[in-house]
Design a protein that fits this description.
5-stranded antiparallel sheet, alpha+beta, 32% helix
Amino acid sequence: MFKASIVNHHILIYRLLFLVCSTSLTLYGQHPKVIQVDSLSYGIDYKHRLIVYSDALTDSLSKTIKNVTLHFNSDLQFTIPTDSTKYNTSFEAKGYKLYVTRLPVITIAISKSIVDEPKRPSKLTYYHKGTSISSIVGIELRGNISQTFPKKTYDLEFWKDESGKENRDVSFGGLRKDDDWILDGLYNEPLRVRSYFAAKLWLQLHSPTYRNNPNAKSGFDLCFTEVFINGRYQGVFALSEQVDDKLLQLQKPVVNAVQGVLYKASSYSGGTDFTKLTDYDNLFPHWGGFEMEFPIRDYTSHWEPLYDLTDIVINASKDDFKNKIDQQIQLNNAIDYFLFVNLLRATDNLGKNYYIATAQKASPFFIIPWDLDGVLGTIIDGRHIPTTNDILSNGLFDRLSKENPKGYNQKLAERWQQLRATTFSNDSLLKMITNQYQRFENEQIYEREYAVWPTKKTKEEEFDYIKNWLQERLLFLDGYFKDSKND
């Protein structure tokens, strides 16, 4: 009986040890936790047999849980680690490949084909870090040359219902709240980083000089997202803000007077590069290659302020130009824009692809960049143009350089030197580009992007080209602005 008691005691100990070990194995991931994935958080491409899942769960789990099994609505299950390595690999099950992404996932469902005009109703869902948005969206194709690319760019307008009569403001991450958005396909950028880098660089470089509203921005902001349309993976896009009076915080018109104004440089017609002055008619929304963006009241445009600026640039005497130009345009803004365009060699951004605005009545103009894809040694169709040893200009900047109002040339050279020690330093610029490139490479975004949109050049070749081009461009500009300071 005593021996039986000992045996029973040992059995009890073994059972306790087994229970402890089993619990420990469960806690430490030997028995993965099963999660039913939110249907808004992923897209499935049945043709390419891939899934992209915007993870919002595994980072918040207890560190003792090492693995998790994700259960998708299609009865597909994938076991993945809960640490950061989940972004650096793919997982296979039943012939499907799962990618876990840090980026937002957007899915769009539409019953008709997407055309240039009009916007057609669709259903859009957005998911990122546990935040989801579902909305009816009017969608249409956007751009000119970009419409010839296999991968399209889209204009989005958020609606309260399919009629599109009432718009709906939404916000994505740290971007502003608005109803108008752009999904830029970035097809002419093999690395998908040029225009993103350029837009972010401008926001670092330049701040609004008017302080009447702290919410005013100097340009548009954007973020990357991954997109599915009707069950097909479309790849990585830039989700971008629109440039308008709300973004820039321009003063609205009062009863009998226009305050802030906004124009878009849309075509090479002489006005946009400040080489030609023609008469205007406020009955029309176009003049000299510009489009009237704000305000338009009673179908009437307001071209007087821009006409006056152009008139001074083209026709003013030397003394009048020197004395009055800083009342017409913010010289600090002009300096930053000139340096920005020349650093990037943005060949399409001095006669079009920019906005020009005033914040309030009789205040000087300032320039806002737009469409920044033809930069860093390429043009807008994506072809390499390796030129690094020239200066881009137009009628406005030529006149500023010639007449040198308020010490413009000295200020230009000094600003270049200041930026070269900070925002425009080799290390800073290359770090911005390299970090984004390495993220897309390490997190397999290039792998899935090129699976649906193959490229002729390798990403390594393209990355080396950008680095080498930028270094050569900086060397040339250093010499140019050093010489101009000594003139």
